[in-house]
Each structure stands twice: as C-alpha cells, then as structure tokens.
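DATA SHEET
Item: assembly model
Revision: 1
Owner: S.N.
Input lines:
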Amino acid sequence: MQNPPSDYDAKRVAHWREVLRANGYRITPTREAVLRALSAGNYALEATEIFERARRFAPHLGLVTVYRTLDAMLSLGLVERVHCTGQCSLYVAAEEGHHHILVCRKCRRVWHFSGDDLTNLMNDVANESGFVIEDHWLQLVGLCPECRDS
Amino acid sequence: MQNPPSDYDAKRVAHWREVLRANGYRITPTREAVLRALSAGNYALEATEIFERARRFAPHLGLVTVYRTLDAMLSLGLVERVHCTGQCSLYVAAEEGHHHILVCRKCRRVWHFSGDDLTNLMNDVANESGFVIEDHWLQLVGLCPECRDS
DNA sequence: CCGTAACTGAAAATCATTTTCATTTAGCCC
DNA sequence: GGGCTAAATGAAAATGATTTTCAGTTACGG
C-alpha cells in the first residue's frame, strides 16, 4: 500500500459537494471528511481504509457514515466499485464518461482507460444466446510500474 | 429462480471426481453431494443454495463442507465465481478453455462464450499505463430469453 | 483390515455490512 | 439571528456470510 496522503483534491471535493447538494444531500463535516479521503489519489480502498483516512479530517467519524456516504456517492456515480482478486468491496473515485479500470493487485493503484469496443462481441453473444445484454463489466488486473520493480 | 433439478450430470460429476482424486482429495459422500448439486444446470448459485440442493443427496451435510469443497474446486478450476449486481459470491460449473460468462440478472442462468479478442486493447493499455497486465475479467449481464418475456 | 492423514458437522469466532434509535444539525423560512 | 424539520449522526445491536476450532469419523493406500 502507498503512504496514505494527508491532503486531498480540493477541486474534486468541491465538485462532489455540488453534486451531492444538487441531489438533496446535506453537506456535513463528516461527509466532507469522507469526500476528502476518497479524493486523494487513485487507489481502490476498502471501507475501513476510507474510514481511517477520513478520521484525520473528522476524528469522531463513525464507520456507518462512511457506508452511508459511499451509498450516496455510488448512486450518483461519483465513486465506483472495484473488484480485485478475492476482494469485491473496494471503492475508487469515478471518472467522467465510459471507461474501465486497470488495478494493481499489490498496491491497488487504479488506471482508468477507455477505447474498448465490445459492441460486435456483445451483438454476437446476444444473437447466439438469445439474451438481452444490459450491461458489461471489464476490468484488468496487473502490477503497476512501482510494484513490478520491487 | 428455476426449479431446482433433482437429478445431476453424472458424466460431469465423474470427471470432477477424477480431478479431485488426482489432486489428493478424497471422495466422500458429502463431497459427492456437492458435486452433484453443482453439476445440474448452468445457474450461478450461492453457497447456501448449493447447500440446500446438496442436502437432497446427503441430508446431514454441513454448510462448512460446501465451502471447503468449493475452495478445492475453485483452486482446481472446476468451478468459477460469478459476479452479479450486488452479489459477488456466486458459483457456477466451469467450462474448458478460455471463455467468459453472460449471466441473467433475474434467474442467474449462465451462458458461456468465447471469441473476445482483447489483446490489442490490453497492449495499448499496458503501454500507456506502464502496468504489467496479468489478468482480465469480462462479464456480461442481461436477461435470458425466458426472463425477458415474463 | 489397519493406520493415519484427511474429512466431517456443530459450535464458536470473525468480519463486513445493515438496522435501530435517541440525539444532533444543516439548511430553509421568517 | 433564531426556529423549525427532515436529514444525518454515532453507538450498539443485529445480521449474514465465511472461517476457525475441535473432537470424532472415515477414505483409502499399504
């Protein structure tokens, strides 16, 4: 794991604050702390890791609030779930637009990419199976440059 | 959910039995019951569902044995995990060769397909990110013909 | 058929997540 | 600048899936 950053991405936090507010969510100090924890760096984090980091900004924060804030942010598309080997409850700040995730299995650094074109494949599979395909998940797992070298 | 089948795929079970035995696992009546439960139909099942079905073949079976057998089979590649919306612990009989899964979000019927060619995409992403890509994970979610019509 | 390492189920432990509930507070209205 | 009210809060309890422990049982090679 990387060293937990003690600062945060103020711009990203401001944006998230706006989106939350625009959707009827109140901005509380604890929620702000969770936003900050999630804004810093592109690493897939567990709920408890987010909790630990957010506590630096709001020491009395409860883990329940982390879960509640994550739910809100997930439903607004501000964060997304990351599936890692044997870990299906990691969270990372979402990026705009259609894209997928490449995650380092060691430090859980996340790289966003787009450019996949699965429409042909999906059409073929839909035709032969008779299914209506509604969604597709693509995720790559590997080692980031730092973890590869160590 | 489909109606739980009371029979099983004897050929598949026999094959699994061989693989388990060849890898030093013993064939017990309870394990056999789990194999049978997994062999019938291509549906992604939770551990507890496998448990219920396997109990028809071995009424005193414990849930722990289901988990232990699943672990063994996962490590031998005989079953694979299926990730569904909000569900990351479903299991389905694996198929030979490289392939991916299309799962019905309603009845959890599974369709295996291959023919994806992600090598170009993966090379591109590896180059721009500097990551070594070790694994890729692709899954489609949709509705099977029966669930689509109802 | 014997010995032993593997396997077993029940119960307890663990761990992540959700629910409950009494209290506090953000943000709107005046 | 209060005051109001629904939303949000943390602690504790509940839940649910999975793992560990353990004493007894059993598959299977010799």
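QC remark: Chain B has a mean pLDDT of 93.
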